[in-house]
Amino acid sequence: MNTLGFITSNLGFLAQDAVQEAAKNQDLVTIVPWTLIAQLCNLFIQLLLIKRFLFKPVREMLEKRKAAADAAIGDAEKAKEEALSIKNSYETSIRSAKSEAGEIIANAQKNAVSQSEAIIREANEQVVAMKAKAERDIAQERRKAVNEVKDEIGSMAMEIAGKVIGRELNEKDHAKLIDEFIENVGVES
After folding, report:
1. What is the pLDDT of residues 58-115, one digit of tens each?
2. What residue spans define the domains of the chain?
């Protein structure tokens, strides 16, 4: 600062000398070399002071703002990347959920088809079993009816034979006649 004070005081003296000389000459349009030099020196001093005390702090402030803006941009890019990765993971999970739902539906359809086939198969087996039972019942009833008819026919034949022959048959002859008649009736049916 001592040099600066010295320069400023010298400039002040130079300016006073220039003013005194101008007053002596009283020329209004003339250029005084010492005044011009003093003004140029004053201009350079002011530029140095402005550069040191104004430009440097402003530049530092601008650099800090730029650094803050760069950091904010970097944070925004990181947030964007994180958002994209989260979005991708959600899309992946949605796709897997859809595929799982498709598999569940397909399995349910397969199970439904297999259950319906099993029910139809069981119903067919029951129908076959009922048909077989009905056929057995019909055959048994038929045999029973045939036996009853044979017994009735046998007793009727005995009565008719007894009337025709006019005598009573013994048990042995009676059984023989019944068997012959049943054989003849069984052959005809």
Report:
1. 888 999 999 999 999 999 999 999 999 999 999 999 999 999 998 999 999 999 889 9
2. 134-188
Give the Cα-Cα-Cα angle 156, 160, 165 (nearest 5 degrees): 145
Q: Are 15 and 35 in contact (CB under 8 A)?
A: yes
Tokens 């990181």 locate to: 78
Tell me which of 42 and 181 has the higher pLDDT: 42
- Measured CA to CA, the distance from residue 46 to residue 7 in angstroms comes to 12
**What crossing angle do the helices spanning 33-50 and 2-25 adopt, rounded to 10°?**
150
Q: What is the DSSP string of 62-108?
A: HHHHHHHHHHHHHHHHHHHHHHHHHHHHHHHHHHHHHHHHHHHHHHH
Report DSSP letters for 27-65, one per residue: -SSPPPHHHHHHHHHHHHHHHHHHIIIIIHHHHHHHHHH
| Contact present, 20 and 44 (Cβ < 8 Å) | no
The pLDDT tens digits for 154-169 are 777 666 666 566 555 5
pLDDT at residue 123 is higher than 80: yes
Stated pTM of the model: 0.37
Question: Exposed, middle or buried, 45 (CB in 10 Å: 0-12/13-18/19+)?
Answer: middle
Chain centroid, CA 164 distance in Å: 99
- The set of residues, in sequence order, having a beta carbon less than 8 Å from that of 35 and lying 6+ positions away, is 14, 15, 18, 19, 22
